[in-house]
Each structure stands twice: as C-alpha cells, then as structure tokens.
Amino acid sequence: MHYDVVIIGAGMSGLAAGIRLAYFDKRVAILEKHYAFGGLNSYYRLGARDFDVGLHAVTNYVGPQQRNAPLNKLFRQLRLDREEFDLHPQNYSEVRFPGATLRFSNDIALLTEEVARAFPGEVDNFRRLIHDIEHYDDTRLDVPYLSTRSVLRDYFREPMLIEMLLCPVMFYGSAEERDMDWTAFVILFRSIFLEGFARPREGVRPIIRALVKKFRSCGGKIRMSCGVQHLEVRDGRVGGVVLESGESITADTVFSSAGYEETMRLCELRDSPEPSFSPSPQPSPLEGEGGMARLSFVETIGILDTAPAALGHEATIVFYNDADAFTYETPREPVDLRSGILCCPNNYAGHDSLPEGVVRLTWLASYDHWVGLDGEAYGAAKRAYHPSFIEQASRFLPGMADHLVFTDMFTPRTIWQYTGHLKGAVYGSPRKRRDGRTPLSNLFVCGTDQGYLGIVGAMLSGITMANMHVLGRQ
Ligand SMILES: Cc1cc2nc3c(=O)[nH]c(=O)nc-3n(C[C@H](O)[C@H](O)[C@H](O)COP(=O)(O)OP(=O)(O)OC[C@H]3O[C@@H](n4cnc5c(N)ncnc54)[C@H](O)[C@@H]3O)c2cc1C
Predict the structure, then answer these.
(1) Whose C-alpha in 226, 368, 379, 397 is 20 to 30 A from the C-alpha of 108?
(2) Confidence of residue 274 (pLDDT cuts 50, 70, 90)
C-alpha cells in the first residue's frame, strides 16, 4: 500500500495534519496504536461514567470576531464550524500563593485589576509586559533561547508576582524544569491570560468526533490498534513504515506525533547527529541532559453527588502553591504535594446541567517511581494518595469528602502506557524542533515536540507542518 503521507498517531496534531492534507486531495493514512482517538487528550469509560484523560480547559478561547486569533485560524484551516466544538467559557480562575491570590478570566482586565490590588507598585510594569507580549513575533524559527525568569526580572521587582505568573504557564505547557524559553512563555501566556479557557459540555469527545468525521469525509483513512513497529531507513529517507503486525506501507512523506526521541527510536537513529539544515538556535540549558523529556503528572478525578458551587467553590481552575517560590521540577518523591492544579469542569458557563460534580486534582510526579512498581504495589501506592487528594481538594471545596462517590487516578505510567511518550512526559522534550525536521529528509515531527502544546497548539502544529512540508503554504 502506498500513500502520499502516512501520519503516526491519531492525537490532536495527527488528526489536524491529516484533515489539512486530505482536504487538498493527498492520499493520507493515520496509524494509531491505541484503540481510542485523542492521544494525550483521549477519553475512557469506567463504572458507567465517561471520563476525559486530560481535558481541564481548551486554551486560546476567543469569540468568532477575533478572526486572526489562533482558534479561529484553526477553524478556517480545518474547514470546521466552531459550533462543532461546543465551547463554553470559564467562570474565572485563580492563582493562589501564601498571602496572595490573583483571579483571572477570559478578559485580561480582571488580571490587571488583581495585579493592581495585590501588587500596586507593579501594575504599570504588568501593562508593559502585556503590550510587549501582544507585539511579540512568535512565528520566527531562529530566535535564540532566552530565560523567562531573567526577562521577567527586568519587568518586575516583586519576586512573588513573577512566581505567580509562571505557575499556570509552566503547569500548562513547560517541558523545561525551573525555567522556560521566552518564546514558549509568550505563546502560553497569550493562550491562558490574553485569550482564555473554555470547555465543551461533553468534554473532549465533541472535538475528537468533529476531527475524525472531517478527516474521513475528506477521504482520509484511519487505522486504529495499528502500532508502527519501525521505520525502514534508506538513503537518508524513510523507505517503509513497518507495522507491529509485520505489514509494510510506503509513503512519500511521514509525519510522526509520537515525539522526537520516540520517533528516532523507531528509526534506530537515537544517536544520529542533528541535520545540518536544521538550525539549532537554543544553547546550553536544553542541550544534553537538559533536553530530555521528563515532566509528568498524576491526576485524581473525583466524582461528587453535588456541584462544586453548592460547596461554595465557583472557580474553574485553581493553580495553588504553598510556598513563596514555585518549584517546577520532577519531584524526588512519587508526587509533589506542594503545588497543584484543581479543576472543576462544572464551573464553565452552561455546565450546570452536568449530571454530577467533578473535581480534577493534578500534581507533578516522578515517572521513575511509578513505573518501578508492580501491579499490587502500584495499586497500593495510588490508594496511599487518596487522603492527600481529599485534604487538598477540601481546602477549596470544604466538606467535599461527604459528597465523594467515586475516584480514579492516573499516573505517569498510565500516560506512557497509552501514548508511548517516554517518561510519561506530557509536554515532551524541552528542546523543540520548530521546523519539524529530522535527520531523514521525508520524516517530520508534529505536535508536542514540534513546539506547540495543548489541544489547540497541537492542532495548529499539525496544520503548520502539513502546510510547510507538503502543501507548500505558510
Ligand atoms: C493529564 C493531561 C492533562 C492535559 N490537560 C490539557 C488541557 O486541559 N488543555 C490542553 O489544551 N491540553 C492539555 N493536555 C495536553 C494535550 O493533551 C497535548 O498537548 C496534546 O493533546 C498533544 O497532542 P499530540 O498530537 O501532539 O500528541 P499525542 O496526543 O501524544 O498523540 C500522539 C499519538 O501517537 C500515538 N503513537 C505513539 N507511538 C505510536 C506508534 N509507534 N504507532 C502508532 N501510534 C503511535 C499515540 O498513541 C498517540 O495517540 C493535557 C495532557 C495530559 C496528559
């Protein structure tokens, strides 16, 4: 079987790339090793309930009138009707540190007011930061690495404000520990604070449904439970895609959303040099060990017999940190309880009709710990964190323990098992391949390791890579 393009992975980036290519009459096949679509943002059914794997918020939310915003570009490029995503905006969210809380919504005016209230001497600096971020060109591929912490220190005198701005941004997309590249910060800051959060009432399912339906209607082919075992390399190109079943497929071009390192392993090119045509603008922090993917999370999902609002909690997402400084790194312990993200899907506009209350609590976690446990010890370790879940969630939803009817927990091991991402690393490698190129001339990475993160980011990555490397459009 021969295709114009084979795409590894039916996550957000693979599906979006597939739609774009199939729409322009390319013969495209998406190969997915899991039985469910969505990759890192998939869904499952347990105990007669539907769960999302990852969805807290669709970031980048804007109304239809902001035509040049990423979300609206995405709808245009994929020829999707925005109604199909059924997006409902957040109530408001919070960053909570000891002695200071900043509320924010999908209108930056609220966060500006909150900065003026909590850090009165910094509000003009905050306005200057917003102005500079609004005018920053994030499309250039050759910008050198710049430490976000050092840039923010040039704007602000209050260290805690820097930590409070970094906390949601790093939690929602930094593959780097402790600091992050300025361009990545700008992209995420816009997506979280200048645009905002929304959610489909049914969770991630409508988004996946719309993508799969569109891809198929354009003539694309998807094969599920169809893992790629390896890529045959001939003369500096991928000559064949060999499936776990032993079947072989050929394609002019191969896109992989499996991750850069994971894809190199499929080609047995782990130690291959960087291609000379791919500029490597980012110096030291992300080279060598610093470039290894490692940040992962545990999440407990609690089902309540009442809505969070009935317990006095109306915030959509709370990013909390129990010290003045925010520590974003792989913990030495199984789970880092010092900071976390508490998300209540009920607290989006129009979500009061959800049948049950839901609380999602996410913490940084150590992949090495969780993957080293055998079946029984693994279950026991998960159960050991149940009291911490109740304790932390009860800080925001007092009395929630009396309303808890079901919990489920996933760990870095779950993420690795279902997506194949090394170390269960949700945001991939800190070293992004912004041009998508690999040492093989017809193999390109899309999604997490290309550089755009999250649901909207991954879809934009698929679109950009399809435009750039196959369709010859910008
Ligand atoms: C717990 C959690 C919470 C999250 N919350 C949010 C959120 O609230 N908002 C948000 O915007 N983003 C969130 N994200 C991030 C978001 O889900 C990802 O950034 C995005 O989905 C990545 O898409 P992708 O296409 O790049 O990669 P993936 O989704 O990882 O897709 C890659 C696909 O490739 C498949 N694959 C891998 N190897 C092979 C192989 N050899 N053969 C065939 N198939 C293969 C995998 O099975 C997978 O389906 C969250 C992620 C997690 C894990």
Answers:
(1) 397
(2) very low
**What is the arithmetic mean of pLDDT over 216-220?**
98
The Cα 428–Cα 291 span in angstroms is: 10
Question: Residue 111: CB within 6 Å of ligand 1?
Answer: no
Q: Do 208 and 61 have their domain in common?
A: yes
Which ligand 1 atom is nearest residue 418's CA?
Answer: 47
Please work out whether the CB of residue 420 comes within 6 Å of at least one atom of ligand 1. yes
Residue 131, domain CATH:
1.10.405
pTM (2 d.p.): 0.95
272: pLDDT strictly greater than 70: no
Mean pLDDT of the chain: 94
Q: Structurally, how many domains does the chain consist of?
A: 3
Q: Are 258 and 11 in contact (CB under 8 A)?
A: no
Rounded CA Rg of the chain: 22
**Dihedral over Cα of 354, 204, 200, 96: its sign:** positive
User: Six-digit token pair at 464?
Assistant: 């950009």
How far away, in angstroms, is 330 Cα from ligand 1 center? 20
Domain boundary residue among 172, 195, 218?
A: 195
74-89 pLDDT tens trace: 999 999 999 999 999 9
Residues 342 and 357 in one domain: yes
Give the SS3 label for residue 436: coil
Whether residue 458 has its Cβ less than 6 Å from ligand 1: yes
pLDDT, tens digit (0-9, with 9 covering 90-100), for 161-212: 999 999 999 999 999 999 999 999 999 999 999 999 999 999 999 999 999 9
Residues 298 and 414 placed together within one structural domain of the fold? yes
| Pairwise CA distance, residues 195 & 108, whole Å | 8
For the ranges 114-123, 142-151, 205-214, the lowest mean pLDDT is seen at 142-151
442 with 396, same domain: the answer is no
User: Tell me, what's the pLDDT at 282?
Assistant: 44
Q: Tell which residue, 464, 137, 460, 450, has the closest CA to residue 278.
A: 450
Any bridge partners for residue 2, and if so which? 250
Is the same domain home to 407 and 433? no
Whether residue 53 sits in one domain with residue 72: yes
Q: Are 214 and 19 in contact (CB under 8 A)?
A: yes
Least confident of 270-279, 302-311, 330-339, 443-452: 270-279
For residue 253, the enclosing domain spans: 2-87+202-285+427-471
Q: What distance, in Å, lies between the first and last C-alpha atoms of the chain?
A: 30
SS3 for 136?
A: coil
pLDDT tens digits for range 459-473: 999 999 999 999 997
Question: How much distance in Å is there from the Cα of 402 to the middle of ligand 1?
Answer: 34
Number of C-beta neighbours around residue 145 at 10 A = 20
